[in-house]
């Protein structure tokens, strides 16, 4: 080798070494994340820091031209003026965003859109910090062409956390393939006020069931490796106690004590945080006069201090501004911003809660540099954890292949099947025969795709959604005559078809009537800046929507002419099966007395029609259980099963008990419970409970076994019974198995008068059964006092 070549090689090596040295620390993937975060923050201006914690509305940030998508002028302007580092609902399509199947993005174009936005910020901003894309993902990614699962109230009706974890993994895979990094969900609010418009988004009234479902969603969303391109960050909603607003008014104030907050409303969030959740959203409401978005006890002391939360906190849309405009505890936008970030709220979903107001608050000394840097670090940490600095783009072809794959649709059908609750089945009306000669399908929810999908659902390709009518047609023999009459609308009373419905019923051997509610948004409804509907008491053009965000109710009656339709059909004397598709418990008093068979399907998603038909015709043996009590009247409210003692007494007009209690649900199979054994482990608080479960029928099926506990004497008032353990078990015909549960310290503890979690000595009653009010076995154990 001659000297000139040797010199060139030496020079080249020196140049490479120099390049490596000059490479910013935050771009070096080999260095620890915390070191990279601090290096990046040290390079950022005040404006750039504020931009990283400002989350703008994303659907305005792209331009679509045929099969190409690019960054919009609005996005470029946002980067130039606001330095935003996160977008929300970029891929969302619905009447609020005014994105339709034509103007919105299919999965392939969604991937192109997020790639285009990433490319712009990486190549055209000073520091090249990649974007975070947050999307709505409660029962599927709220984007065109993705799989639509049952809403959360249906998910919890499965009582099957393992299945819900699998479902969440599917949702995450579809969202991440399109460029999303954060999924808003699960909603962990306890729904103890069924008049509230967002019951469908919750897992019901119980903290233990909510906790199990929340943990399942977090695990399914986040997996074990956020860099895998199959997982997303889970954002827990809404922190906290949002689901029990006074009067059922969405976002209204909440009247609960500190002990009840810790005992009932915080445990689902705590369980999800302990499972690794990396994002939490604050609630719109206040608790005891303190808005949740400016509550340092919630966001600092409890969330980070007590639970060790390592993620970032984001506001609900506009809730920082709401500190001033709704709660009136701040005099200015600047004061509201400082109250929120000083309380521990990291990111602003809206872009106007922080933005200029936060910048002014920092410059005026109301917010310290350390507080701002901490919030920025909490957001940036997730960008590093997701691997976005090294791999910001997604594979466009993969997005098209993954979304709504056959395997994913199969999961949607499975969740829908397991969510269906058999409320009544007199004289074995169900299952129906597939060779039935003539069946009438009647009702406003029998053949309406959007009414069975629930809120937070994108526009749909009608071919992808199976209604109840279609499901029944798919199931019966070719010779069966299936007649369909809508009969009436959900709310509108202008057009009814009672005569046609009665005529169809008279000619049928059996009648399936599909009633309930709807949270299907339309393009005529006006929406608030938060996305909630602007409900008007008297509407000229009446939509079906009576549930979903903003649609609070004063009664729980079936709306419009639905009950009259059912009564008219029932008078024919033909066997009638009622199927309810709804977002909240509705008044079923008359059907419970007069209709022989009732199925509750909530909003069952895109495969709802097939799943309901599977149950109607016996191809699937139902085992769903109620995650929320069904009241007889709004006058009973609240009517959740685990209210504090003393027990409620009856009213003059009716009993205090609900029509159907928490945990209730029937099956085509019969099960027998026996041989309860309770064993106290010496030297610990662990109590083992075992019993035998036998399928005494000739049909294989699932049973949801439930263990409730009562502390007989306690230092503070506790519930008469509280769910502690449950399991969904499959038994073949005639099969028997021994079921064992272990009660731990966490199951036995209470939040005492000194605001401490303790296990107290004394007698505890164990109740095992198939619902909260159908207890099959009872036993007592004693915890001795510790000397």
Automatic annotation (TrEMBL):
PROSITE patterns: GLYCOSYL_HYDROL_F3. Residues 703-772 form the Fibronectin type III-like domain. It comes from the Bacteria. GO terms for biological process: glucan catabolic process. SUPFAM superfamilies: (Trans)glycosidases (SSF51445), Beta-D-glucan exohydrolase, C-terminal domain (SSF52279). GO terms for molecular function: beta-glucosidase activity. Keywords: Glycosidase, Hydrolase, Signal. The keyword 4Fe-4S does not apply. Residues 1-20 form the signal peptide. Belongs to the glycosyl hydrolase 3 family. This is Beta-glucosidase. The lineage of its organism: Bacteria, Pseudomonadati, Bacteroidota, Sphingobacteriia, Sphingobacteriales.
